[in-house]
Amino acid sequence: MAEKEKVVLAYSGGLDTSVIVRWLQTEKNLDVIAICGNVGQDEKDLEWVKEKALKMGAIHSEALDMREEYCNTIVKSAIQANGEYEGVYPLLSALSRPVISKHLVDIAHQYGATTIAHGCTGKGNDQVRFETCIHALDPSLKIIAPVREWDLTTRESEMDWASQHDVPIPVTKKKPYSIDDNLWGRAIECGVLEDSWNQPPADIWTMTVDPTEAPDTPEFVEISFEQGVPSAINGEKMDLLPLVIEANKIAGRNGYGRIDMIEDRVVGIKSRECYECPGSMLLIEAHKALESITLDRETLKLKQHMDQEWASQVYYGYWFSQVRNAIDAFNAYTQKFVSGTVRFKLYKGSLLMDGIKSDYSLYDESLATYGEGDTFDRTASKGFIDLHSLMTSTWSKAQGPASGNQPA
Ligand code: ARG
Questions:
Q1: Among 96, 126, 128, which residue has the most ligand 1 atoms within 8 Å of its CB, making it the best to mutate?
Q2: The whole model's pTM is what?
């Protein structure tokens, strides 16, 4: 008998990807290798997930701990780029896909698989990201997205197919939302949230307490950075992974980090998204604050533009791309002196700057002060303003006074 082709599946252990294991075997005649990535999601027992795949006849299954790699490469760049799509969403799903894709491709090479499969729907961003990353890493690999292909469009039809094909059906009721989470935060979509006028139900939140139930006394937190990378919390040096976990706890217990937004998907759909991103928002805010004293005005202005571009490109799935590499090269320079400490006050869902310092600060008190010890030369301002306003005074003289020269 000819050897079957092999497919590597991004496997989560849920109903969809469990049905997919069997579907790839029966409908596509493939040998399945099921890979489950630990990117810090709240899924307790990934070994159990692995066993489940093997029980269903997967020829190989692995639960891979990708957390350190995810943190030290992707999350690190995201902090340096203040990565927030449409200025709001810290990109948690978009950031996890590249590291998972890289491992899927590595495993495909290791086992001689020709194909990679995933369980994403045909309407979302994650299909775009997986496939764009995989195409960049190895354009020769084939991709199967069963959910885009099969007729199992309702949960009932999927459950029926599962029981007919000996797929273990989860005993738990269908979750009312679609959730994706990892150490950079949690995304909640679907269900009652699809009506944009509906209030987010209290039960969607798990990483953050309700701000009204947060402690009655403020909590102060100090976050230190070295070259744009968080290095300590409250003076305690930490690697990035434990530091992010700690940041999630601190911000989460103070009710900070909830987002409810309408977001523009790659495929052209606007969607209602709720997120909780306590740690990521805290660290990005701290990083932005530190950049405000260590980068000059023009670099900051350019960087804000680059940051926006970085976030869009990563959201669109272009992690492995020339443009993302180029912006990261820009940041390798901009981050050289982004070192120092920011102190925030967290109180019932709010985050306030409380102090900031850096050995490389461009903030010069002797220039800024209105008190003693002023070193700023006030007499130089007149000449500066004469030249600064030359453009508009010339215009006014030639084409009439500005008051009478208005649009429309
Ligand atoms: N809208 C977010 C994004 O595209 C979150 C996607 C969450 N994925 C999911 N399967 N629930 O990045």
A1: 126
A2: 0.96
Does residue 403 lie within any of the structural domains? no
H, E, C per residue of the chain: CCCCCEEEEECCCCHHHHHHHHHHHHCCCCEEEEEEEECCCCCCCHHHHHHHHHHCCCCEEEEEECHHHHHHHHHHHHHHCCCCECCCECCHHHHHHHHHHHHHHHHHHHHCCCEEECCCCCCCCHHHHHHHHHHHHCCCCEEECHHHHCCCCCHHHHHHHHHHCCCCCCCCCCCCCEEEEECCEEEEECHHHHCCCCCCCHHHCCCCCCHHHCCCCCEEEEEEEECCEEEEECCEECCHHHHHHHHHHHHHHCCCCEEEEEEECCCCCEEEEEEECHHHHHHHHHHHHHHHHHCCHHHHHHHHHHHHHHHHHHHCCCCCCHHHHHHHHHHHHHHHHCCEEEEEEEECCEEEEEEEECCCCCCCHHHHCCCCCCCCCCCHHHHHHHHHCHHHHHHHHHHCCHHHCCCC
How many domains would you assign to the chain?
1
Does 321 fall in a domain? no
Rounded to the nearest whole angstrom, what is the distance from the C-alpha of residue 46 to the centroid of ligand 1? 21
CATH number at residue 134: 3.40.50.620
Q: For 145-199, write each residue's pLDDT tens digit.
A: 999 999 999 888 999 999 999 998 876 666 789 999 999 999 999 999 999 999 9
74: containing domain: 6-173
Residue 404, in any domain of the structure: no
